[in-house]
Automatic annotation (TrEMBL):
SUPFAM superfamilies: Six-hairpin glycosidases
Residues annotated as domain DUF5703: 33-291
UniProtKB keywords: Signal
Name used for this protein in its record: DUF5703 domain-containing protein
Organism: Clohesyomyces aquaticus
InterPro entries with a match to the protein in the record: 6-hairpin_glycosidase_sf (IPR008928), DUF5703_N (IPR043757)
């Protein structure tokens, strides 16, 4: 721990109570390229609402992939809606007269070319419309190509693409039989199928690409990277110096007739939508929360890159702001041709590992935890509603297989409850999920223990529990690493959920401990059969459960576990290490991990396109955990009765920072730290200032 943390209070300046000015990100946070990319792996992200684009320039053309949340086909793959290629003649954006920039503050991509030519791409945050606006110094001809690689074969079904009303219309409507039907049959649930929630039935998605300046042309064939495609081309009617193009996007579980009517309606209103409302939304988004570190140091400074890339990743989270579906951990809305991630994955551009329709709790949780402290509570609704929708199916499986409820997503229960503590979120819509999740562990394991003697593993005599009145969780699992575990520490929760089921709370077993290299440490479980994978569930009591941490009892149990546990020394570098280090106040180690995690990508051109790691590229999970770690270095809060708000618990003395973050009880903290001293701090409401502590005190 740094010595400066012990004396921070001495240096605190006078509390500033003046209104906080709206923030503007430094222009140096923009990502700008003066050369074209080699392929789609050299793309940059753009988006809004729930639409994502990969934008790049290649061989003197401008291209972008289109993705939208919820575009799940018959195989539960999350399909892209195609690729657009823009070709100009003469071309003001040819190599040598070219710049591509992500304008972060305003949320759009700008191409600058010869003769002050500009092409702006932006996505309307409030309406599902992509806009392309071209201004050139001379008249140019424009070809806009909508490419599709969706063809009928043994396992996939083609989109329907046609010229329509002067533009190009593409639609995919799921057939009556989908992978849902096969899965239900495989799981012996066919007799209940008609009552089950099914996200694939009649799922329909597509687009309408049009412009008054363009007219239908030819349908052509082509090949990009390793994928054959067909292209529907729109051509200039006459050369012009100014063009406005629109692509209207749609997705819903509805009939094709209703879908087409919805696209028509959206297209008619799109021409009246200006960019000003979208820009205002992005400005309010940046003012909502920020962490800007050594912002005047410039790109050569690693700490500057931490702050810059944190904000860029938050931009990507903001692109899914109004989505019905969570931002996916394995690529989000920005996957590209998969051979650039894995040379053996010679599939179409919509492919990603772990598929498109799976939202694994173990991975998704790290994408959504940082949204509490960034104040992006509205973005969390898509993840919370996801569990609300699937709860009935989980309950059905539990009744059929075990005669009781079924669910497994403890952290999202805790996340919902913490959102309530942060903002007063109404949890009543999620109570069925919350109660179902908590009751599962009690009812399921009690039932299992009546079937077999599970207690010999721990040398206990079977009664109704483990002999001391506590619930026994066996057979369990310590994350994905410790198999057939008995009372795994990653499952035992001591913080949060205290207002529910007081009897169950009383019976939750103690977090297991053991000695490693002569030091008391947290044990992964009271017993287990084998180790597989590389996670460290021993430290889940640090995060997410908050049983150990700064200001909490027995912190050395946690630090000993990280430093002396012989089974996990080779597992360091895990997704969550930086979070644990920050919560334990190990500043130097947290700093080093953070510098590494937020450094620019060395694999892909865009700085926060990393991976595949354990997931895919871009690895959204990676930056979700990095966001949590950075926030925890600066601000630590606790659930339930502990109202303490700790600032700079693991913050390096040489990192100057301006920040705006959130804490429980509708608390906002806006501050400035220079040289290890809090120079400015505004806490609202002001009554919460008394709950603020500093450093490791």
């Amino acid at each position: 721990m740094l010595a400066f943390a012990l004396s921070l209070v001495v240096y605190l300046s006078v509390l500033f109570t003046a209104p906080v000015r709206a923030i503007r990100l430094p222009d140096t946070y923009d990502v700008s390229w003066t050369t074209q990319s080699n392929n789609s792996a050299g793309s940059m992200p753009l988006g809004g609402g729930d639409i994502g684009l990969n934008v790049w320039s290649e061989n003197d053309t401008i291209l972008f992939y289109i993705a939208k949340s919820g575009t799940f086909d018959e195989n539960n793959s999350m399909l892209k809606l195609g690729r657009v290629r823009l070709t100009l003649d003469p071309n003001p954006f040819a190599a040598g007269t070219f710049r591509q920039t992500l304008k972060l503050n305003d949320g759009y991509v700008l191409f600058d070319g010869a003769g002050n030519a500009t092409m702006k791409l932006w996505v309307d945050v409030f309406h599902p419309v992509i806009h392309v606006e071209l201004e050139a110094a001379q008249d140019v001809m424009l070809n806009q190509e909508q490419s599709s690689w969706s063809f009928d074969n043994a396992t996939t079904y083609a989109d329907v693409t046609t010229f329509h009303d002067g533009g190009v219309r593409m639609m995919h409507h799921n057939l009556d039989t989908t992978v849902f039907d096969f899965t239900v049959a495989q799981q012996h649930l066919s007799e209940y199928k008609s009552t089950m929630y099914n996200p694939l039935t009649a799922n329909t998605f597509g687009l309408w690409m049009s412009s008054p300046d363009l007219a239908p042309g030819n349908v052509t064939d082509g090949h990009y990277v390793n994928t054959n495609f067909k292209a529907w081309n729109l051509y200039s009617k006459t050369a012009k110096s100014s063009y406005n193009l629109q692509i209207v996007i749609g997705q819903a579980q509805e009939s094709t007739k209703t879908f087409h009517a919805s696209l028509d309606s959206a297209a008619k209103s799109a021409c009246n939508n200006s960019q000003s409302d979208t820009i205002k939304w992005w400005h309010s988004f940046w003012d909502r929360s920020y962490i800007m570190i050594n912002e005047n140091a410039g790109p050569a400074d690693g700490t500057f890159q931490v702050g810059k890339n944190y904000q860029i990743f938050r931009f990507m989270q903001g692109c899914n702001s109004f989505s019905e579906w969570p931002l996916k951990f394995n690529g989000g809305l920005w996957t590209f041709d998969p051979v650039f991630v894995n040379p053996d994955a010679a599939f179409t551009p919509g492919y990603r590992r772990w598929t498109g329709g799976i939202f694994t709790a173990q991975n998704q949780r790290l994408v959504y935890w940082p949204l509490l402290k960034s104040g992006d509570f509205d973005f969390m609704k898509s993840q919370f509603d996801y569990y609300k929708r699937i709860t009935s199916n989980a309950q059905l499986r539990g009744r059929v297989y075990f005669g009781q409820r079924n669910n497994t997503a403890n952290e999202f229960v805790d996340m919902i409850l913490q959102a309530n503590m942060f903002t007063g979120l109404d949890v009543s819509p999620y109570m069925d999920f919350i109660e179902n999740q908590i009751m599962w562990f009690d009812q399921f394991y009690r039932q299992q223990h009546l079937k077999a003697d599970a207690f010999s593993l721990a040398g206990l005599k079977y009664e109704s529990d483990n002999g001391n009145g506590s619930l026994v969780i066996y057979p369990g699992r310590g994350a994905e690493t410790y198999k057939t575990a008995y009372n795994p520490s990653s499952t035992i929760i001591h913080q949060g959920n205290r207002s529910y089921f007081e009897d169950l709370l009383r019976r939750i077993p103690e977090t297991p401990l053991r000695f490693q290299q002569g030091k008391p440490c947290i044990s992964p479980a009271q017993g287990y059969s084998r180790i597989q994978n590389t996670e460290i569930p021993q430290l889940y009591p640090v995060f997410p459960w908050g049983e150990y941490g700064l200001g909490m009892p027995n912190l050395t149990f946690a630090t000993n576990t990280y430093e002396y546990d012989t089974e996990t020394q080779d597992f360091h570098g895990n997704n969550q290490d930086v979070i644990w280090l920050a919560r334990m106040g190990l500043t130097t180690q947290a700093k080093n991990y953070t510098l590494h995690r937020w450094s620019d990508s060395t694999i892909y051109r865009f700085p926060v396109f990393k991976g595949p790691n354990y997931d895919w590229s871009p690895d959204i999970n990676h930056f979700g955990s990095a966001s949590i770690g950075l926030q925890e270095m600066l601000l630590q809060t606790f659930a339930a009765k502990n109202t303490q708000t700790r600032l700079m618990g693991a913050w390096p003395a040489d990192w100057a920072v301006k920040f705006k973050l959130y804490a429980p009880m509708n608390t906002t903290l806006v501050g400035k730290v220079v040289g290890g001293k809090m120079e400015e701090l505004v806490v609202g409401p002001k009554e919460r200032m008394g709950d603020v502590v500093y450093g490791t005190e």
